[in-house]
Design a protein that fits this description.
The chain has helices at about 55-65, 65-80, 130-160, 200-210, 220-230, 230-240, and strands spanning about 10-15, 25-30, 35-40, 45-50, 90-95, 100-105, 110-115, 120-125, 170, 180, 185-190. Helix content is about 40%, strand content about 25%. A hairpin with a 4-residue loop joins strand 10 (about 180) and strand 11 (about 185-190). The strands form 3 sheets. Strands 1-2-4-3 form a 4-stranded mixed β-sheet. Strands 5-6-8-7 form a 4-stranded mixed β-sheet, with helices on one face. Strands 9-11-10 form a 3-stranded mixed β-sheet, covered by helices on one side.
Length: about 250
């Protein structure tokens, strides 16, 4: 039995928990060849090819229910580990694995600057925004400024070692990826990575620059990564185990 009458267009539908699974899930029908499943934020999403029957999808989801529940439990534990960041005097914020203490001041115009121990936010007396709104914007600006400069520098460093070019370095606050390399040589990074230790940040840059040699994750690709970042395994483990703690 077809999932929906219209079979040549992408479809999306919510399936309520039948009572035996312990979770409901979204189904998306698209032009794909196989089914996939994703668990994020306590929500389950299933991707399936067009013309897949609802019965086939349900049976496949039921076969994955143990994995889904394990994934949900894992994410619940991670959620409990996520730190709560505040924009107040004396609060510590991580930068390249070290702590910077937040300082607040008032001035005629908003500004932000830092040194080896502090991040100073100058809040504008004239702004109609709350102090917390101003502080959040300034902190975001400071991290992005630091990320742009440092990541561009490290991209150039590793690109020179490999004899490749990097067209551009972009920043985005993404949910699922820390970095990305396009076929054209544009490298994209989540600027929250600047809260991680320097060795982890450098690994991420080495990883993405290595995609300028191999745009895949083959054994050859990992050999290239290791040639410019010998400690990549430990850095990758750190990111997988602690990446959820890098928040804004």
């Amino acid at each position: 039995m077809p999932f929906w009458p219209a079979k040549d267009k992408a479809q999306k539908r919510w399936i309520e928990d039948p009572g035996s699974l312990g979770f409901g899930y979204w189904i998306s029908l698209t032009r794909r060849r196989s089914m996939s499943m994703r668990v994020e934020g306590g929500q389950v999403s299933v991707g399936a090819p067009l013309r897949t029957s609802l019965k086939s999808i349900r049976e496949w989801v039921e076969s994955k229910q143990v994995w889904v529940r394990d994934k949900m439990a894992e994410q619940s534990l991670q959620l409990a580990e996520v730190p709560s960041r505040r924009y107040c005097e004396g609060e510590s914020w991580p930068y390249l694995g070290e702590e910077r203490v937040l300082r607040l001041a008032l001035g005629p115009r908003a500004n932000v600057y830092g040194d080896e121990k502090h991040i100073t936010l100058v809040l504008s007396r004239r702004s109609k925004k709350t102090q917390e709104e101003q502080a959040a914007e300034l902190m975001s600006l400071w991290y992005r400024q630091q990320a742009q400069g440092y990541l561009e520098q490290q991209c150039a460093f590793y690109a020179e070692q490999l004899g490749v070019t990097v067209m551009e370095v972009k920043l985005r606050l993404t949910r699922s990826k820390w970095g990305h390399c396009t076929p054209q040589g544009v490298l994209q990074f989540n600027w929250l990575i600047m809260q991680a230790p320097k060795s982890v940040v450098d690994y991420l840059v080495a990883h993405e620059v290595s995609h300028r040699v191999h745009l895949n994750h083959s054994a050859s690709f990992w050999r290239v990564v290791e040639s410019i970042c010998p400690n990549y395994r430990s850095a990758e483990r750190w990111l997988k185990g602690n990446g959820h703690k890098l928040v804004f």
